[in-house]
Structure formats: C-alpha cells, structure tokens
Amino acid sequence: MTHRVRFPSPNPPESYTSTGVLIPSVTPALHHRRAAWTYALVGGLVAAPLVVVHNRSTGLGGELSLLPGLGTGLPLTAVFVGGLVAGFLAGRASADVDTAAAGAGVLGSVPALGWALAYPTEIALETGGAWWFGLVEGVMLFVFAGVVLTLGAVGSLAGGFVGRWLASLVG
What is the pTM of this model? Predict the structure, then answer.
C-alpha cells in the first residue's frame, strides 16, 4: 500500500521519491527471512529424495525409521544432509541459518510422514468402536505427525549448524 505524503523539508526520507510518493521497500529482516526460506526449500528438495531412497531401500513399509541403520525411524542422516545444504547456503548469504535448516528438515520429513502415517491411518479407519475412539485416534495421529516433523527439524538443525560452520570456513 502506498500513501501520497508531501514533506515540507527539502530532504525527505530515502523511502520516498522526490514527488513524495512512498516506495515500498524490503526491510533487511524480511529479506533475510525470505532468503532463509529459499534455502530451506533447496535443502528440503535435497532431503526429500534421500528420505524416499532410504525408505525404499530399507523396505520399511509403514514403519518409521528414527535411527539410520536400525530400521526404526526417520532417516535423520537425510534431513541432516538437507539441513547442511540449507545451512551452508544461508551462511554464505548471511541469511537466517536456523530458519533455513529447520525449514529444510520439515520439508524433507514430509515423505517420511507419508510413510509413517499410512499404516496407522489405515488401522484407525478400519477400527470400529465408540464415536470418541475415532476422535482419540485422530488426535494421536496428529500428535504423531508433529513428532515426526519435529524430529526432522531437530536433525536438520544439527546439519544447519555444521553447514554454517563450513560456510564460515569457506568464507
């Protein structure tokens, strides 16, 4: 939104043109957040295929892989790599590394979420019982989804810290 404002002084603020019309500008904080989400998208696009490859190669089916190699959960190495890429790129561009890494982890965890929720959702839909039982199952699935995305964000944050460190070494 722009407003027409006239200034009595000959030197208006820099965000106004010589005619007194406000020029919308991007503040540095908004620019850093926008850049961080750009790098989060890149990191998420790196992590998501790695998560899919991990789940396909381990044959997890409906299980969630929390620790790599143990066959029990979200492949944290995949979201770690996505966070590393996002943290490195954000660190090089002086953007918010924490936002970029956590965003990459959440985006990269979406395939694992689909894998993890497929079987419990099937069971929840097939199970009969009282009306409140379905409500409890829905709440539990929602909480479980939050836990999966949180684990992805935390694993990716660790990668983001390493990526920031690598960016500081490279210069």
Answer: 0.69
Indicate whether 11 belongs to any domain: no
Average pLDDT over residues 50-72: 59
What confidence category does residue 154 fall into, taking pLDDT thresholds of 50, 70 and 90? very high
CA proximity to 44, closest of 87, 90, 79: 79
pLDDT of 84 over the 90 cut: yes
Asked if residue 150 belongs to a domain, the reply is yes
Residue 117 belongs to some domain of the structure = yes
Domain annotation covers residue 14? no
- Domain coverage including residue 91: 28-170
Q: What is the per-residue pLDDT for 130?
A: 75
Q: How many domains does the chain have?
A: 1
Q: For residues 152 and 78, give the distance between their C-alpha atoms in angstroms, rounded to a whole number.
A: 9
Residue 79 and residue 109 in contact, taking contact as beta carbons nearer than 8 Å: yes
Query: What's the rounded Cα separation, in Å, for the pair 103 and 47?
Result: 11
Q: List C-alpha distances in Å: 71 to 18, 121, 146.
A: 65, 20, 20
* Residue found by looking up tokens 């010589």 in the block: 18
